[in-house]
Structure formats: C-alpha cells, structure tokens
Amino acid sequence: SIEVPEAAAPDVGIELFQLPWTSVAQECETTLAPAGIAWVLLSPAQEHIAADEWWASYQPVSYQLASRLGTRDEFADMVQRCNAAGVAVIADAVINHMTGQSEPGVGYAGAAYAHYDYPDLYAESDFHHCGLTATDDIQLYKNREQVQNCELVNLADLDTASPTVQATIVAYLKDLISLGVSGFRIDAAKHIPATDVEAIVSQLPQGTRIMSEVIRGAGEPITPDEYVTFGEVFEFTYARELTPPLENGVFTDPVLSDDRPQQVSSEAAIVFVDNHDTERGEANVTARDPQLYVIANALMLADDYGTPVLYSGYAFTDRDAGAPTDADGRVLEASCADAIGPTADLADGERTCVQSWPAIRGMLAFRAIAGEVPRMPGVDSGDAYGFEREGRGVIAVNVGDDMQRIEVPTTMPDGAYCDVITGGADAAVDGGCAGREYSISSGIASFDLDPGAAAAIHLGSRR
Ligand code: ARE
Ligand code: CA
C-alpha cells in the first residue's frame, strides 16, 4: 500500500453571482465547505439603483447593506455561517463610482439620489468631471487620465484622491469587515489610480485580502502589475491563453509558473475560466459548452499558476437579464445541494451549480493532494494533452472529435486508479471505482479518451 499525502489547505475560491445571502449561507455549509472551497466572492452588497438588470448591483446609491440580494441582518448571518463553515467571504467593493443614471431617482432600499448627489454620503464636489472628452465619458483606454478620471459608461466617478472620499469608502469597507468579511474584490480598480487604492486599503486591518479587477488590455498604459504591491489581481491573460487550445487542439506548454509572459507572478494572480462579465463577452469557453468547460476548469485546477476562482452563475438568453426575482424584486433563493452537472439543458435563470459537479469536486480533491508539487512537461497526442503533478497526479484531456489514446509518463506507483472527473471526489469506493478506471504501468499512465472527455487520477484515488 502507498502513503497518501495529507491534503493541502484549500485555496480555491468561487464567485456565486447574484445569489442571495440566505442561499450563500446555505451553499457555504452544504456545498462549498464539503467541496474544499476556501472562499466565496459575492455580488455587491450595497444599495443599488432600482432596476431589473443584474448590473444594477454595480450602481451604488448608498452604502446601506440593503439590496435585492438581502438585508443587513441576512448578510451578517451569512458571513458568520460561512466563516463557521471555514469559507472566507470576499465582498465586491464598488468604490470607483456611484450611479450612471442622468435623472434623479430612489434606490432599491429607498435612498433618494441624483447623478452627483447622494445625501449624507457624497456631493457634487466629491466627483471627477474630467473635462477631457465631450461627455466626460472614457473614450480612449490608451489614455491614463481618461481611464481614471473620466466616467466609465456614465458612472459618476468618485474623486478617490480626496481624503474625505477615502474616509467614506474606508468606513464602508470597515463596516463590512466588522461583520466578518475577509477581503474585497476592488471593482473597476483600473479606473482608480493604484496609489488611491493603496491609500484606501492601507487603512484596513492587516491581512485584509485585496483582489483588484484590472483587465489587462493590449497597448493600455494601466496594467495589473501596478496593483500587486498591496494585493492580488485578476489575471485576465490566463483564460485568454488557457482556452483557445481547447478549440484548436494546439497546446503550448508553460512548464514553469514563471514562464508565463504577460502575467503577474503566480502569488499575485487570481485566475479563472470565466466571470460574470466575460461569460457575457470575451470568454471562449463558458458553461454553455459543458464538456469544454469541464476541461478548462480541470486544467486550471490541475495547474501550478495563480489562485483559481470558479464561477457559478445562471443560464440566460438576454445578457442583461437579472436572476429571477419575487414580486418585490428580491432575487429568489436557490440551492445547489442536489445539482449534478454539467448539463447544457438549463432554462433561463437556472443556476449552473459548478460547485456540485462531480468533475469539479473531483478536481478540487486532486488539487488538495497533487497541487503543491511541480508541474511536469506536458504530452501531446493528436488533440489530446496531459501532464503530471510530480509523483502525485496526472490529468489528460481530449478536445478533438475522435477517440484518442494518450500516454503520460509519471513517477506515481504502478496500479489501478479511479478517475475523479467521472467519479468525483470519492472516486475510489469499495475496491472499485465510482467512475472510470485507468492504470499506470511501467511509469506510464494511459488514457483512452472519448471526444470531449477529461480524466484525472491522483494518489488519493488509487483503487
Ligand atoms: C450599465 C449599462 C450602460 C450604462 C451604465 C450606466 O450597460 O450602458 O451606461 O449602466 O447607466 C456592469 C455592466 C455594465 C453596466 C455597469 C453599471 O457590465 O454594462 O453599465 O455594470 O450598471 C471595463 C472596466 C471593467 C468593467 C468592464 C465591464 O475596465 O472594470 O468594463 N468591469 C466591472 C464589473 C462590471 C461592471 C463594472 C465594472 C462597473 O465586473 O460587471 O459593469 O461597476 C477592454 C478594457 C477593459 C474594459 C473592457 C470593456 O477590455 O481593457 O478595461 O472593461 O474593454 O469595456
Ligand atoms: Ca475613477
């Protein structure tokens, strides 16, 4: 018998897009903690404009925790329950701007506002009026001043260099921390000078996790690298390089973490296959394409670069459509406890529930056992590709239209292993396998893979 190494502490996160707090709490307890997911990224919690589209969340009206995702009490209860389950909570901090509505209005929870006037919070002088473009909107991403001082799609742009604006933002973030939040996604961080983000987050308790959303853009002067001195960044290049091979079958092999041009260091990188924006935009592979989506997520979870964040959203036809709501506009509760995916047959509004897919849970188990040893050089065989995490796990995928055999050299012990993609986290059961079985013989792991199939075995999945 062989010794199975101790499972590493979980590091993977998940974005639960537009999921109400009561349901997030439920997921922390029933699906995320059991799957070994370390943190959950929420949709924005603050009061927002009253509108049906999901992106209403990204137009703050006040910093009350009262949104269609839930009340302050529900938020507080959720954070406490997630923390108790061992799942840290990362809040989405929309601090670059307020609303984009030119007309005055009343927010979801009743706060009156106008485009540059948010009573008891911000007044006209707290906003940039960049004067660099006809409408004060950003027109040219190649111009740093426009990107940071003009308005992103007409959203009233806060003067984040102002000490009073900073103090208001810091008070809001500290309020979330007082409820147990562990860190923040800084929404639209590219549009806030890195020095301003740093000035704000340096006023938060030590250890607060900061993840800046800075979309790397070709030829743009503002890069994610400016934001790594005080936290992590979402590295958009990762998905852009990970997924095209899934469609063209030509894999290039980044053997070493540091051998990835145009990407921040591995420690600073949050990586993902898609997120709520790219699912509706640039992503090559999304949950609408279940087989390739499993392959992409499996490769990411088997990889040695960055901290992965999974994405759990809902099916849609209209890219603007919000999650289903009740008559009061509250997003309906949803549970992934009994979901088995992947499936391409979701009705609009139904949750993808990736955290419950056996393949994803199997790969989280793979990562816990094999994720801390070196990634070995990849092997190509037609449209199949695979690699070893040295001595602990092997993954192989077939992105072509034909059955493919692939043989991956490994220092894992010879023997029979249960596949965690088809078998899930507990792939080895009662001397047999819950899913498929593969073998290692004379130091070669062999896989016969159907078109669109993936396979992964590790020391803990020995039959
Ligand atoms: C909505 C309407 C607009 C309207 C506006 C104001 O769609 O027509 O003018 O409201 O009334 C989300 C939605 C937006 C929505 C907004 C506010 O995606 O459609 O606008 O909420 O409700 C850039 C930013 C990046 C940003 C993306 C979307 O750099 O930070 O655009 N991503 C975050 C969130 C979004 C959110 C916001 C920011 C705003 O993740 O969900 O917007 O809070 C190149 C550049 C990128 C650029 C990208 C797209 O790749 O390199 O920097 O990203 O193009 O323009
Ligand atoms: Ca700005």
From TrEMBL:
Its cofactor is Ca(2+). Coiled coil: none annotated. CDD domains: AmyAc_bac_euk_AmyA (cd11317). The keyword Calcium applies. The keyword Metal-binding applies. PROSITE patterns: PROKAR_LIPOPROTEIN. Belongs to the glycosyl hydrolase 13 family. This is Alpha-amylase. It comes from Microbacterium schleiferi.
